[in-house]
Design goal:
The complex is a heterodimer of chains A (440) and B (724).
Chain A lengths: L1 E8 L4 E6 L7 H11 L8 E4 L2 E8 L2 E8 L4 H19 L4 H6 L1 H11 E2 L2 E2 L4 H7 L11 H12 L15 E14 L5 E15 L5 E6 L2 E4 L19 H4 L4 E4 L1 E4 L5 H7 L2 E3 L4 E10 L7 E10 L3 E10 L6 E10 L4 E8 L3 E5 L4 E10 L3 E10 L13 E8 L8 E7 L7 E15 L2
Helix pairs in contact in A: 5-6
Chain B lengths: L13 H8 L4 H13 L10 H15 L9 H8 L4 H14 L4 H4 L3 H7 L5 H13 L3 H14 L5 H17 L1 H6 L2 H7 L6 H16 L10 H9 L6 H11 L7 H11 L8 H15 L5 H17 L5 H17 L19 H14 L5 H11 L5 H17 L4 H13 L3 H17 L8 H5 L8 H13 L7 H9 L7 H17 L1 H4 L2 H11 L4 H16 L1 H8 L15 H8 L5 H5 L3 H4 L20 H16 L2 H7 L9 H26 L43
Classes of the chains: A alpha+beta (440), B mainly alpha (724).
Chain lengths: 440, 724
């Protein structure tokens, strides 16, 4: 497994080095610096030299590197590195050069705890925070406390500690969808899919058992994929037409937080779990059928000789008139030799950003069913470049509340607990642009 | 039971961090830090605040590989005894880093650590054990063994799981010592522990030991496999990964059992951690080799597809890994990815390594049905900025023309559109692939030669030049001014690479054969250059060959040089069957990123093979099928040389070298496949003499755990644990 962990800043200065095995040598840090950080032609996150492999990811302005010997499980290495970043964020607020430098002893302490002989150990933030804390180390604890910690760190419910108490029991559910779109120059939709996540913030007393209900008709996978699953969801007769009917949703695939009982999900599609305390990601899913696209974009671009490009871009909101999208940003690429631009918009503001070679059109509030237009011209300077303009796609960003592109709905969330308290639940939906690209 | 006051105490600010690294001369700094560390704080420094700050500075310097810090070792050992866990942790870190440099000083810390092993606090016991076992110093290793035996049975699970990993650590330090003790047997006992984390840790430790020792064998029978699968839901994401990894050491003896186990682990495919998902896919692919029913296998395959695609919404590194594995799985179980090819279309912002792999996958998934979409997409990529990616896209279009015959025309028109952009590297790449298209479809698309000839000037890369020269030579009789074009290239003969010179030589001969009047001036000149003015043996040999051929029998020369060429395919990228089989056993590992046999990348890694068993579906293995084909092939290839001679070397042609290469490669492949298959029949499972067999056997608990040396006890089910 992992032989060591290295953290570098952007300049290649070593911030953290921890060895877990004999084969981790200090000079390997120099090797990585020379071969990866100062080598602009490196294009892969994985580099193997001899039998030593450097797997790296980047977060903010640091490199996080896992060093290993032999043919190790690469998925495990990267998942661990991601986990290290998210742990760092939850401990220090962010995980960048400054955070690492001002907390380096703590980073060492965490590393010692979450890796043993290079094998990832318990990495649950909640448990770790019981005995590794930013407020100095709460070291000399009562013995029973320590046993509680060790049970927690090795137990089946490592994500939740005992004796959590809240005066007001609340649970917030956020359904957040990133809708991805790729439209070809001729206007056909090449791909439209949704990456969704259900984020939860649970402030619940005791050991609550939660049950989650999604759309009445929840189908998983394509036809046939769920034949063997049977159960009440087996909406087999429903062919594509009826799947589009109201209240149904087809999820291509789901992955669930480790607190969810996978067996009961496989059997009858109920999502039942004991939640971690605080915020966590309950589930992620993917949908490719019947994706509701919030915006329809029409792009007309004319290159007039070598000196000018004309744009006419119309964007129409496809959602109900009561909803509105916020922070809508449309980026319209211009040729690299653009000298100046002129633009007119029916709503919002447009501005040319020479550093990115785009016209940025911002609309703070985009009401449903409305349509706005940008007309622009880009004057081109003379150029020696022979190559034609590569026409990168137009891209959009937005966020839209109370709308899901997949049609997913939360029907209910039930909380069962010995205390039998009543709890308040809140559900919010949001659709954002993932990679929303229109070629022209 | 004291808590440190928070307000007064802060980690050094970034400014401080930096300032202490670049301060003063080394000796001055060491002396200063020592003074800080050993200073008596008096009453004010109740919580050793000053000592802690000094220690932090020392740790910071240690990170920068500042070896002057070794000088502080004795002072660190002194500080180790202070009643503060925070100080202790920093001292331990120092100890782990420098113990090898100063073993004699480190020894002074040993009693402190040994005492901590008996601490009442389980976290302390675990910390001491963890630290102790990181230190590669003989006395430390030897002193660990006895207390370790007790700690393996500690009543706290956290200590037990730490102890389990300690066994693997000791094995890394001194394998003889561990093999001579009963530690591995004790580790094996832990597989029956009530705590799932302890079990998964023990399994991980055993696998780690197995990986590094030829003399150890890991055997898991169905009952044990079934038990560890049962505790999967209770383990952490990492624990689940360790257990799944261990499952590939279970050799199903019965096809029903394999199917049942595969079905039981499918739930793991919904896990968020991609290590769990990919390792689960690995185990399922492995078990499929032992499942007889095609229906069950195809049902399992349909379940693999959605999770694999879902990994594409994770971080780019995981996406990359998932895509590389998709390339692999697609070759072994094509039904897994019957998805829409559009799922793999590139996003504009994908990192380049993701894009390139998606491109390969798009190529593999392209069929006659989706070719239109695919070509539009590839055409789009060919105008992007990244040079390497653009080239690969163009190349993919050309290869598709070869792979999907009905779509050849469409592919070629796409290529011509790209050539029309006049972008130099696009034109060059297109030229190279068009040459291959001519090879595949001789005498069909000559109309495009004209377009190619218009772009001669933009060719400056050897490969593109050689390709163009080949086209000119091959179609010399159909290109009006072929001799002029060739002359142009010949002008720079001296400066060309051998690749281009070889192509020029062959093309000149072809020109002469097809249009003797035009070529008669060129050929003698080129032959002279090739034979007399070069130091390249290939070029010289080929020159002589042509020379003699032309001088001895010009008539036959034509049939040889312009003979029919063997067809080419686009299948060359596929892995050979033996490698494919091996790679499927290591899905999710680094080797799958390189898609090369494990031992070529990581030489010391223990090889994995499919173990023989009554349930193994041998006739469905790619290597077996390849071996069967090779047998057919070798019987037919025996007669090949004769028929060649008889038919005046039909197979000989302008690309003699290419063809010979291909011929020898095919011989090499088939003989390799045969020998590997032979190996297979010989069954590597049968324990070779002298091989020590470790056996994992969680379970039946007859307490027979043996210190006995058993070379083989594969069949007696009730022996527990791993026997040694």
């Amino acid at each position: 497994m992992l032989s060591g962990i290295l953290l570098f800043n952007q300049k290649g200065e070593l911030l953290i080095m921890r060895a877990f095995r004999q084969d981790m040598r200090p000079r390997l840090a120099d090797v990585f610096r020379i071969q990866v950080i100062s080598n602009p032609s490196i294009r892969s996150p994985i580099l193997t030299l001899g039998s030593t492999t450097f797997s790296h990811i980047r977060s903010e302005n640091i490199y996080i590197v896992g060093v290993s010997k032999g043919n190790v499980n690469a998925a495990l290495v990267f998942e661990f590195l991601y986990k290290l970043v998210s742990l760092g964020k939850s401990y220090f607020g962010r995980f960048d050069e400054e955070a690492v430098k001002s907390n380096f002893v703590m980073v060492y302490e965490l590393l010692d705890e979450i890796l043993d002989f290079g094998y990832p150990q318990n990495t649950e933030t909640d448990t770790l925070k019981m005995y590794i804390t930013t407020e100095g180390v709460k070291s000399e604890r009562a013995l029973e406390d320590s046993s509680k910690i060790t049970m927690q760190a090795t137990g089946a419910l490592s994500w939740r500690r005992d004796n959590i108490k809240y005066r007001k029991n609340e649970a917030f559910v956020d359904v957040i969808e990133d809708v991805n779109l790729l439209v070809s120059a001729s206007g056909t939709v090449l791909r439209a899919d949704v990456n969704g996540a259900i984020e939860m913030r649970a402030y619940l007393t005791g050991m609550p058992e939660c049950k989650f209900g999604l759309n009445d008709r929840l189908t998983l996978g394509e036809n046939g994929a769920d034949v063997s699953l049977g159960g009440p969801v087996g909406n087999k007769s429903g062919q594509k037409a009826s799947k589009a009917a109201a209240g149904s949703v087809t999820l291509e695939d789901v992955s669930l937080h480790q607190c969810v009982k996978l067996s009961s999900f496989t059997n009858d599609r109920t999502i039942s779990f004991v939640p971690p305390d605080g915020s966590f990601q309950l589930m992620t899913y993917r949908a490719t059928e019947n994706v509701n696209l919030p915006f329809k974009v029409q792009v007309i671009v004319n290159e007039i000789r070598k000196s000018k490009v004309e744009y006419s871009i119309a964007i129409r909101a496809n959602y109900g008139p009561k909803l509105f999208a916020t922070s809508v940003v449309v980026k319209v690429p211009t040729p690299t030799n653009t000298a100046s631009t002129t633009h007119r918009v029916t709503q919002g503001k447009a501005k040319y950003e020479p550093s990115e070679n785009v016209i940025v059109w911002k609309i703070a509030r985009f009401t449903g069913q409305s349509e706005f237009v940008l007309s622009a011209e880009a004057e081109l300077g003379a150029t020696t470049q022979q190559k034609a303009w590569s026409r990168p796609p137009l891209s959009m960003q937005f966020s839209l509340l109370m709308f899901t592109s997949s049609g997913l709905l939360v029907r209910y969330l039930k909380v069962f607990e010995k205390g039998n308290y009543s709890s308040v639940k809140w559900v919010r939906y949001m659709t954002r642009a993932g990679s929303y690209e229109i070629r022209f | 039971m004291m808590f440190l006051p928070v307000a007064a105490y802060h980690y050094p600010s970034p400014f401080a961090y930096k300032s202490l690294l670049y301060a003063r001369s080394p000796q001055g700094k060491v002396a200063e830090l020592r003074a800080e560390l050993t200073a008596q704080g008096g009453k004010k420094d109740k919580n050793y605040l000053n000592k802690k700050i000094a220690l932090k500075k020392i740790v910071a310097n240690m990170t920068m590989s500042n070896n002057d810090m070794v000088a502080l070792f004795p002072d660190i050992v002194d500080a180790m005894g202070l009643p503060s866990l925070e100080i202790k942790k920093m001292c331990f870190l120092f100890l782990v880093n420098y113990a090898r440099a100063k073993p004699e000083v480190a020894l002074r810390a040993l009693p402190i650590l040994l005492k901590d092993l008996e601490d009442t606090n389980p976290l302390m016991r675990a910390l001491a054990l963890r630290t102790l076992s990181y230190i590669h110093v003989r006395n430390f290793v030897e002193s660990t063994v006895v207390p370790l035996k007790a700690l393996l049975k500690d009543n706290d699970p956290y200590v037990r799981k730490t102890a389990a990993f300690t066994v693997a650590k000791l094995y890394d330090h001194d394998r003889v010592l561990v093999e001579g003790s009963d530690l591995i047997d004790r580790l094996n006992l832990m597989l029956r522990d009530e705590n799932p984390t302890v079990v998964s840790s023990a399994l991980a430790a055993l696998m780690d030991i197995w990986e590094r020792s030829e003399s150890i064998k890991l055997t898991i029978d169905y009952t044990n496999a079934s038990k560890i699968v049962q505790i999967l839901p209770d383990c952490s994401e990492w624990g689940q990964t360790y257990i799944l990894e261990a499952l590939t050491s279970y050799v199903p003896q019965d096809t029903q059992e394999a199917a049942l186990l595969a079905e039981r682990i499918t739930q793991r495919l919904s896990h968020t951690n991609s290590a769990v998902v990919l390792t689960c896919i690995r185990v399922m692919l492995y078990l499929m080799n032992y499942i007889e029913s095609d229906k069950v296998v195809s049902n399992l395959c349909t379940k693999l597809s959605p999770p694999l695609v879902t990994l594409l919404s994770k971080g780019p590194e995981i996406q990359y890994l998932a895509l590389r594995n998709a390339l692999l799985i697609l070759q072994r179980r094509p039904e897994v990815l019957r998805n829409d090819v559009r799922l793999f279309f590139c996003k504009y912002n994908d990192p380049i390594y993701v894009k390139v792999t998606k491109l390969e996958l798009i190529f593999m998934l392209a069929t006659e049905k989706n070719i239109k979409e695919v070509l539009t997409e590839l055409r789009e990529y060919a105008t992007e900025i990244d040079l390497h990616f653009v080239r690969k896209s163009v190349r993919a279009i050309g290869k598709l023309a070869i792979k999907i015959e009905p779509a050849a025309k469409l592919c070629i028109s796409t290529l011509l559109e790209l050539v029309a952009t006049k972008v130099s590297y696009v034109v060059q790449e297109a030229t190279v692939v068009i040459k291959n298209i001519f090879r595949k479809y001789p005498n069909q698309y000559e109309s495009i030669i004209k377009t190619l000839c218009e772009n001669l000037d933009s060719l400056d890369e050897p490969e593109a030049k050689a390709a163009m020269i080949w086209v000119i030579g091959q179609y010399a009789d159909r290109i009006d001014n072929s001799e002029v074009l060739l002359e142009d290239f010949l002008d720079s003969w001296q400066d060309e690479t051998h690749e281009v010179q070889l192509a020029l030589l062959t093309a000149s001969v072809k020109l002469f054969i097809q249009r003797p009047t035009k070529g008669q001036e060129i050929v003698p000149k080129v032959l002279k250059w090739a034979t007399e003015e070069t130091d390249n043996p290939d070029l010289r040999d080929r020159g002589y060959m042509y020379w003699r051929l032309l001088s001895s029998n010009p008539g036959q020369a034509k049939s040889i040089v312009m003979g029919e060429k063997p067809p080419i395919t686009a299948e060359s990228e596929k892995l050979d069957p033996v490698t494919l089989e091996e790679m499927c056993l290591v899905v999710g590992t680094l080797a799958t990123v390189y898609l090369k046999p494990v031992h070529t990348v990581f030489r010391s890694t223990r090889p994995r093979r499919l173990q023989d068993s009554p349930a193994l579906q041998r006739s469905k293995l790619p290597s077996y099928q390849a071996a069967q084909q090779a047998k057919l092939l070798s019987s037919s290839s025996l007669s090949l040389p004769q028929s060649n001679g008889g038919a005046n070397g039909q197979a000989q042609n302008g690309d003699v070298l290419d063809e010979a290469d291909a011929y020898f490669a095919s011989i090499g492949n088939s003989s390799m496949a045969v020998s590997a298959a032979g190996d297979f029949a010989g069954s590597p499972t049968a324990g070779r003499g002298g091989e020590q067999v470790y056996r994992v056997n969680q379970g039946q608990g007859l307490g027979q755990m043996g210190t006995t040396q058993n070379a083989m006890n594969r069949d007696d089910g009730e022996g527990d644990l791993l026997s040694f």
